[in-house]
């Protein structure tokens, strides 16, 4: 039995992903499933995909709030997910680099493995070649657009973490004679390669979506939360064995998020611990206890983001 046949059988017996169609109770009249519809895209600016409506109305429940001044109640499901995330972060950080250094071997390498699997699978999809060509073919005219340079600068500063203090915090644990210049070059090169490599995976599936929707790639390409929580899951949901591919994709997002969370929290914990040691002199503050305070405080603040 080939892989596609096995995947099709799995789709028959496994749970159907809830963002695959417009036939659910939360869907509105503006829902349009362009990946399975044989009709051309209607001429309407209010259309939303099934994954977009699922993200907005089921996960975020944005329709139950009138704005930022109407927070609503915290959603139990998101609070539990956040609590689990912060527990994992604490277990990764409470011993400092001794514990986080071991966790990073998993969280930093797993995304590359999953990206490679997704790329190999996406390369076999119709329209994938068009997506890759759209990604790697340079557009000289775009260089005259200031927005392009702005987005590029944001990408570099945010992905490298310039000004966040994360690199300084981790570098403080190095030996005095460590070659920081070499490490800086390696970090920058690995970051640039990762951004380019993940772009290959993304535009493979964007090309596939454009092929299915019979439209240009520029109309399905987006950025930010819309890409990782709406566009990409929608494309993966149409594959045979979509449950498996979706699990792999979201597992990759979890490991990436843990990496970012570990770096940001380690920066805060290291800086505050150093400052408190100077303030209290010989009185020592246990790393485990202080990490618990910082992580718990971060979790309590994050609850505001779990509201409607």
Automatic annotation (TrEMBL):
- Which cell locations does it reside in? Membrane
Per the record, the domain of life is Eukaryota
Q: Give the GO molecular function terms.
A: metal ion binding; symporter activity
List the GO biological process terms: amino acid transport; sodium ion transmembrane transport
Ligand binding (Na(+)): 159, 191, 256, 259-260
Its topology with respect to the membrane?
Multi-pass membrane protein
**Entries under InterPro entries matching the protein:** Na/ntran_symport, SNS_sf
- The UniProt entry lists the main location of this chain as membrane
GO CC term, one of those recorded: plasma membrane
Mark the transmembrane ranges.
77-94, 103-124, 152-173, 185-208, 243-268, 289-306
Question: Which residues are connected by disulfide bridges in this protein?
Answer: 22-31
Keywords assigned by UniProt, alphabetized: Disulfide bond, Membrane, Metal-binding, Sodium, Symport, Transmembrane, Transmembrane helix, Transport
Q: Does the keyword Transport apply?
A: yes
Q: Does the keyword Cell membrane apply?
A: no
What PANTHER family does the record point to? SODIUM-DEPENDENT DOPAMINE TRANSPORTER, SODIUM/CHLORIDE DEPENDENT TRANSPORTER
Instruction: Name the protein family.
Output: Belongs to the sodium:neurotransmitter symporter (SNF) (TC 2.A.22) family.
* Name of the protein in its database record: Sodium-dependent noradrenaline transporter
Organism, scientific name: Halocaridina rubra (Hawaiian red shrimp)
């Amino acid at each position: 039995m080939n892989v596609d046949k096995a995947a099709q059988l799995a789709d028959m017996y496994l749970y159907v992903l809830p963002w695959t169609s417009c036939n659910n109770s939360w869907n509105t009249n503006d829902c349009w499933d362009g990946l399975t519809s044989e009709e051309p895209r209607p001429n309407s600016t209010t259309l939303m995909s099934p994954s977009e409506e699922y993200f907005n109305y089921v996960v975020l429940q944005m329709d139950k709030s009138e704005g930022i001044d109407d927070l609503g109640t915290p959603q139990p499901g998101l609070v539990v997910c956040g609590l689990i995330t912060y527990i994992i972060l604490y277990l990764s950080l409470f011993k400092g680099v001794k514990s986080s250094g071991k966790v990073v071997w998993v969280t930093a390498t797993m995304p590359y493995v999953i990206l490679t699997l997704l790329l190999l699978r996406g390369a076999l999809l119709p329209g994938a070649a068009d997506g890759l060509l759209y990604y790697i073919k340079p557009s000289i005219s775009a260089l005259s657009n200031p927005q392009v340079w702005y987005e590029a600068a944001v990408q570099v500063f945010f992905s490298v973490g310039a000004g966040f203090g994360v690199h300084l915090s981790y570098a403080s644990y190095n030996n005095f004679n460590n070659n920081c210049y070499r490490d800086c070059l390696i970090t920058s090169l690995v970051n640039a390669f990762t951004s380019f490599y993940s772009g290959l995976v993304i535009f493979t599936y964007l090309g596939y979506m454009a092929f299915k929707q019979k439209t240009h790639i520029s109309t399905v390409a987006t950025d930010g939360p819309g890409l990782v929580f709406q566009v990409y899951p929608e494309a993966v949901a149409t594959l045979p064995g979509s449950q498996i591919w979706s699990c792999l994709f979201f597992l990759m997002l979890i490991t990436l998020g843990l990496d970012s969370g570990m770096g940001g929290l380690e920066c805060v914990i290291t800086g505050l611990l150093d400052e408190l040691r100077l303030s209290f002199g010989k009185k020592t503050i246990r790393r485990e206890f202080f990490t618990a305070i910082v992580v718990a405080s971060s979790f309590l603040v994050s609850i505001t983001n779990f509201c409607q």
